[in-house]
Amino acid sequence: MSRKRAKGYRAERELVELLWRLGFAVMRAPASGAKIKKADYPDVVAILKGKVAVFEVKSRAKLENIYIGKEQTQKLLNFARRAGGIPYIAVRLPHIGWKFIKLDVNTEVNNTLKIDKETIEKAPNIAGVLADLNITKTLDTYLKQQLNTY
Amino acid sequence: MSRKRAKGYRAERELVELLWRLGFAVMRAPASGAKIKKADYPDVVAILKGKVAVFEVKSRAKLENIYIGKEQTQKLLNFARRAGGIPYIAVRLPHIGWKFIKLDVNTEVNNTLKIDKETIEKAPNIAGVLADLNITKTLDTYLKQQLNTY
Q: Do B45 and A50 lie within an 8 Å CB cutoff?
């Protein structure tokens, strides 16, 4: 596994654990078989009582513009449309932590998707995802719930 | 990859393709890393507009009783509870095709789960899953829809 891939893998696993602790059922795409993965799946899918969030995960050493290939973006949006879910670019940054850039599921993607560093900087953390999904229970409640259901 | 594992893998892929054609967003657990897979994920998760079905996939050469380990069953049910989905044992048989045994998501699992061959024989095909999820559009509609959204 390349160093870059290993970093991406760690970020995905961290996101999976965060979402699981919040009560979601979470599935990560195959770590190996990068070809299959890119063809079919987003990096991470999280479901809580029928509410769905779909993530493409990017880990970066610093705040910078992020570019996502046209095809990868289309797959993410298509998966989200079928699932009835919300698509996100989940960006992992040192010190800052997670930033979640919500995409419009109906966007027509004709080019590489550029996400400005300003957009990333202003994007919400995981609380923004919970709000988008209309999950109103507090983090605290989820943590308690998680202790009972795991 | 062992011969048995290869057969299971083919069955999973077939189920993924079937569900995808029906309009679902579908995700399959990692094919490699069997340890991780058993710990965390069901074999296949399918989502259609917030309706969720979760599958443990079994491929068999003939109709026979099927046994599923306690822990594997618990993981399946726990995932389904979090997702707000319906858990199934999906059995692939030669000539007969797919049979879907719906589990009660609230079952307390204290032992290996035994599914009688009579139960398997009587179980519905994919149409049963669509009915369970209250998906009332016909297969035909889905096939047309799929052509537009893929």
A: no
Catalytic residue among A17, A32, A39, A114: A32
**H or E segment at B72?**
helix B70-83
CATH classification at residue B139 = 3.40.1350.10
Whole-number Å distance between alpha carbons of A147 and B143: 42
- Domain extent, residue A62, equals 3-148
Chain B interface, best mutation among A47, A146, A149, by max B CB count within 10 A: A47
**DSSP H/E element including A93:** strand A86-93
Please tell me which residue of chain B has the smallest CA distance to A54. B25
pLDDT per position in chain A (150 positions), as tens? 677 778 888 999 999 999 999 999 999 887 554 444 445 689 999 999 999 999 999 999 999 999 999 999 999 999 999 999 999 999 999 999 999 999 999 999 999 999 999 999 999 999 999 999 999 765 666 666 555 544
Residues 57-76 of A with CB under 8 A from B: none
Which CA distances in Å does B25 have to A23, A53, A78, A135, B33? 21, 12, 8, 22, 23
Do the Cβ atoms of B96 and B64 come closer than 8 Å? no
Total domain count for chain B? 1
Type of residue found at B143: L
Q: Hey, of B43, B47, B49, which one would you mutate to test binding to chain A, going by the most A CBs within 10 A of its CB?
A: B47
Q: In the 8-state DSSP scheme, what is residue A133?
A: T
Q: Is A86 on the interface with B (CB under 8 A)?
A: no
Whether ipTM > 0.90 holds is no
Question: Known catalytic residue: B32?
Answer: yes
